[in-house]
Amino acid sequence: MPSRHVGAESVSIAGVTGGSQDFTLVEADVSLTGKEWEKHPIVTGPEAPCILGIDYLRSGYFKDPKGLRWAFGIAAVVTEGIWQLNTLPGLSENPSAVGLLKVQEQRVPIATSIVHRRQYRTTRDAVIPIHKMIQELESQGVVSKTHSPFNSPIWPVRKSEGEWRLTVDYRALNEVTPPLSAAMPDMLELQYELESKAAKWYAAIDIANAFFSIPLAAECRPQFAFTGRGVQYTWNRLPQGWKHSPTICHGLIQTALEKGEAPEHLQYIDDIIVWGNTAAEVFEKGKEIIQILLEAGFAIKKSKVKGPAHEIQFLGVKWQGGRRQIPTDVINKITAMSPQQDHSDVSTNQ
Q1: Per-residue pLDDT tens over the stretch 26-49
Q2: Which residues contact 85 (CB under 8 A, 6 or more apart)?
Q3: 301 and 308 in contact (C-beta within 8 Å)?
Q4: What's the number of domains the chain is made of?
Q5: DSSP one-letter string for 61-75
Q6: Local structure of 284: helix, strand or coil
Q7: Which range marks the domain in which residue 68 is found?
Q8: CATH code at position 293
Q9: What pLDDT, in 10s, does the model give residues 118-133?
């Protein structure tokens, strides 16, 4: 509810009404409750009143006259007083945490022929971070120096947070790797199953560096060799980028959970979700699963444990009240895309 305003500034906004149009930017006294007022710049225009004060609503929560908390026009989720799973003992605060699964070293399919690909140039920004990462992985026993007829090029991948992920381009190796009979669950079927639960509360657990927690048998390691700064290394643990790593990892985590008689859950590789009708029920389920995984040898970071909460993200989808929703960050990325200018742009992108 805007009150008096002081001053005015003209701004041009594209896309609000289907084109570019001039609007007025004013500094107004704004209140969400009608009692507490503060100054805030708002955009106003005769053909787009719907954008009035939207950015103000994004500033946080407020309480209505009945004492209910709200955010962005919907009832806010209140989690005060609810035990959170990320407070459990044994969770790691180390961003590079790596566990070691208590199983025999895994014998995996070996390539039917030698594959040797030279390292190609990588982006300059990745060189130093990747080198430091290799040194850290060596200190953790995940990789070690080697001399192998095999070699695959490093392929650094930047994460959404801006950090780098050490992956190796195993496409050529994958082509000569025998198949594996084990299968992966279908992601869409998992979503359908979770939707059918119509749960009120959720918790999600993401195992830290799950692939790197799985030991490889010595005879299987040479095929995974790669070169960093003129030194050849290979993986002592399951590498990222190899075709069978997701399947092997999923199966071993599934076995650990079954052995520990874990409560009802859904799992996709290293992502696990539990649900229930109360926060206490979900907390106990999540606690039991975390204890099973830690006992098995996996590491779990505090930052990767979410809930209990009414709303949670799992498999790239936001879940609330048993329904799937597109995550806010995905919506923001889509809306931030530049609109195509003419029909020729459309034809060239098809």
Answers
A1: 666 666 555 566 666 666 665 555
A2: 203, 205, 283, 286, 287, 290, 305, 306, 307, 308
A3: no
A4: 2
A5: -EE-TTS-EEETTEE
A6: helix
A7: 5-76
A8: 3.10.10.10
A9: 998 888 888 899 999 9
